[in-house]
Write a structure and sequence with these properties.
276 residues; alpha/beta; TIM Barrel; eight-stranded parallel beta sheet; 8 strands; globular
Amino acid sequence: MKIDSHQHFWKFNPLNHDWIDDTMSIIKSDFFPKDLESILKKNSIDGSILVQVDQTEKENDYLLHLAEQNKFIKAVVGWVDLRHKNVEERLAYYSKNIYFKGVRHLVQSEEQDFLLREDFQNGIGKLMKFNLTYDILIFPNQLESAIQLVKKFPNQKFILDHLAKPDIKNQEIDFWKRQIEILAESPNIFCKISGIVTEANLNDWRYEDFVPYLDVVFNAFEEDRIMFGSDWPVCLLAASYKQVYDLILNYINDFSEYQKAKLLGKNALRIYNITD
């Protein structure tokens, strides 16, 4: 089974989606399951993992409803305020839904050491009780905090989104590479090959721009801890779904069929505890 480990749906609202500015007109629109399902079929992808964007429980309910109505949605990575005193109660509530597999917070929008906050880490410490993963969305300057977080909770599954958003456009790699290699030393951290086209030159990227970064990730995490994700529809700012998928297929072209199967689906199913 082939799985896209990272995609979004939303009904566009300028207030909820204020990060979508006037330069992003192509995604200033509604994106629903019907829009993606045909794309997945054209690319022979069997399902996807739906990831939050709004940081509200209202969005959780909406995404879980979509999962219940659309068979190709295999899991939801939602949001719960991990800093709140009632975090365990909310995690218990959502974990009853078979589609709710993980939690994410938009840490890229927070202060550099947000991951080290005591109240936030209290919430992280509750996730394992409910067999929930945590998706880490950060910039490179927050990687040091991520390293400390992942080491502090060695039995918690963490997933790094978008390679921690390296500056591919300007080919900045040295600091990011060192931090990724240290982070990957912890066996409980996994990595999504996602969101990379939007870190490059949106209008003039080449396959070769990504190879050094993919080399770092594949050397650091190896084949059992990596999964493909499209970051659709955000990827449309720089590339079509097919272009994003073809980029990854090109990179893994010489891999064995067994390795490809892991990277394109089996790892995602295992890491997110998906039985379907």
